[in-house]
UniProtKB/TrEMBL annotation:
Annotated Pfam families: HTH_30, PucR
Residue ranges of every copy of the PucR C-terminal helix-turn-helix domain listed in the record: 434-492
Signal peptide start and end residues: none
UniProt domain Purine catabolism PurC-like: residue ranges: 7-123
Name of this protein: Purine catabolism regulator
Taxonomy, superkingdom: Bacteria
Organism: Mycolicibacterium frederiksbergense
Amino acid sequence: MSITVRELLDMPHLQLRLHSGKTGLDRQVSWTHTSDLPEPWQWVSTRELLMTNGMSFPASAADQERLVEELDRVGASGLAIGEQMYCPRLTQRFTAASERLGLPVLWIRYPMPFVAISRAVAEATLLEQSQRLIRTERIYDTLRRTAAGDLTRSRIADALTKELGCPVFVCDRLTGQAYHPEGPHPSADVAEAVRDAAQGTLAAGARSIRSTGGVELLVGEVPTHEDAVLAATPAGNAGLDGVLMQHAATVIALELSQTHLALAHSRRTGAELTAQLVDGRAEARGARRQLMGAGLDPAHSIFVAATCDEPQRLRDLHVALWRHRIPHLTMVRSDVAHAVIPLSDEAVDVVENSLGASARIGLSLAMKTVGRSAEAAKEAVWALGTAQRTGDALVRYGDAMVWTGVGGVEDAQALVQRWLGPLLDHDAQNRTDLVDTLESFLAHQRSWQRTSTAMNVHRQTVLYRVRKIEELTGTQLSETSDIVQLWIALRARDLLGGGRKS
């Protein structure tokens, strides 16, 4: 067993003196930590005694009270302060908080070296340290003893639960719920406590918290996986501390890395099929077989086209869909994520939530058949274009029709060809910029000067180009009806994925 704060006080040669927090004298001390840094609770984990000379100790009553509360929150054993050093006067609020929370505050008599206290703790916990070393070795041995298998459940968390003698969970940082689709799953109150504790940076080792249901928890970071945290409920004689949690988290990190590698391989395989479907190159029978094998029935599946300000979220879309058990195919092309998902609100919600507040998402109608996949992909891109132009987070194909007055992709293509086709052909053959000039001219309310400034060309050049546009399209840019037709054609071209040059 660890030594307690009371037992440290009872050692005559240490000459420690209690200032406050007498109700917490039975707190166990597994290790000591010396720090004179501001906000020292950032560096202390559960069952550790913080020792300080008080060089950065706060002077105000409010800051001193916060220091006690933060040390208690992270599960520290207590606070020991060097006498006759640099600590300012302890306030009544500090003392009251110590008593209220049962966090012992000790005075270290000058010139007692701090290392003497550290040595006393180490010698008193030799047996525990030996046991920890054995348990640490067995934690790492779980990797060897745990066979690879279904990615949907954390087999390492199951093995650690048996090894450590208490429930262990790999949790999503944002929700507190199980990271793996099949768990193991924490209870609702544990998930809530983990979610609240995991906001921001966790303390070194593990943070000790208590759920609303009274469950004591240790919550720690998972190295190299910022979206995951490790939680354990060390009830009874589990004897779990921050050091063991760090080792357990390292093993969990290795498992997650292996899982993500396997998911990346699966994504690459699916990306090739997605590209074939988007481009209309998929052989119907083989593609249908692959879709069904991925859990996607073409009759009840849709295409998604999405963008957001965080490219990593686009690349990790397949992970979010996997974690929520949503069948999918994904690929990223030219900063746009294309995906095939089931036609369900749940699947759409996962896409929207995983891409964040900056997401712009377009959804197609049901694919129905493999033969309609390319058209469905265009519908999704069309809807995405509407979302980008209107600022809506999500647009379903059909909603875009109301905005443009165009009946569908085929109508849009016909409209573009009718009004912009001559300009597109001329630009391609002569390396001119008639379409861009038309776009800018209309955007600047048909002002010659503003258009020339925006395009960095002479005003006479704009005049010549506008006359050429009118000649090729048979329109008059002084006529409202012609302006409307050209403007709608430009918007249809944007929605079809052929927008303005960057």
